[in-house]
Design a protein that fits this description.
Elements (H helix, E strand, L loop, with lengths): L2 E7 L12 H10 L3 E6 L4 E6 L4 H16 L5 E5 H9 L13 E6 L20 E5 L2 E5 L8 H6 L2 H4 L4 E5 H11 L2
Antiparallel strand pairs: 1-3, 1-4, 2-3, 5-7, 5-8, 6-7
Helix pairs in contact: 3-6
Length: 182
């Protein structure tokens, strides 16, 4: 029995660096034996089906294949359709009332404890806000991610040390849920 997954590649195709063309990413996934392969946008979002149920093994396999194909390492997170739907459904902000550019989800490779962010003075960044979810962080940035001072603070090495993290705007979050529905 196959499960649908999304592969979230971190930091590819940004400013012409670390180029991973989406047709070639689809080829890599197919060569790994995955089916129902599709990509979304140029920013490293792919969906596929696999009989394997281990997200971490799937991610490690994909990272190795990408480095062999393109000659540079790329951190990858692989998440099941069920997880993606649960993250979207648990959004603590009124997603339906917000513009997609105002809401982002950062996916982490492992659970993140609130204590990691305890030293951050969240009140100083209002009206921007963040909330933690299951291996995810929700960010509400009313003026968009590009102008978000909170996003910069949340991305500081002291807060992200030891984590693999990659962010997606709400449109992408919703689209990946749609694309991975069984």
């Amino acid at each position: 029995m196959s499960t649908m997954y999304a592969a979230l590649l971190r930091g590819v195709n940004v400013s012409g660096r670390r180029r991973v063309p989406m047709p070639e990413l689809r080829e890599v996934l197919g060569e790994l034996g995955h089916e129902d392969v599709a990509t979304y946008l140029q920013s490293g979002n792919a969906v596929f089906s696999s009989a394997s149920g281990d997200e971490n093994s799937l991610a490690a396999e994909l990272e190795q294949a990408i480095e062999a194909r393109f000659g540079f390492p790329v951190d990858c997170l692989v998440r099941s359709a069920g997880y993606l739907a649960a993250v979207a459904g648990a959004c603590p902000f009124p997603a339906a009332e917000l513009e997609a550019r105002q809401l982002h989800v950062t996916y982490f490779d492992k659970p993140v404890d609130a204590a990691r962010f305890a030293a951050l003075d969240a009140e100083a960044f209002r009206p921007e806000e963040f909330r933690l979810g299951e291996r995810a962080l929700y960010l509400y940035a009313p003026d968009g991610l590009g102008r978000s001072k909170l996003a910069v603070a949340l991305g500081r090495p002291a807060l992200t040390r030891g984590l693999v993290a990659t962010s997606r705007n709400w449109n992408t979050v919703v689209k990946l849920v749609e694309m991975t529905r069984d």
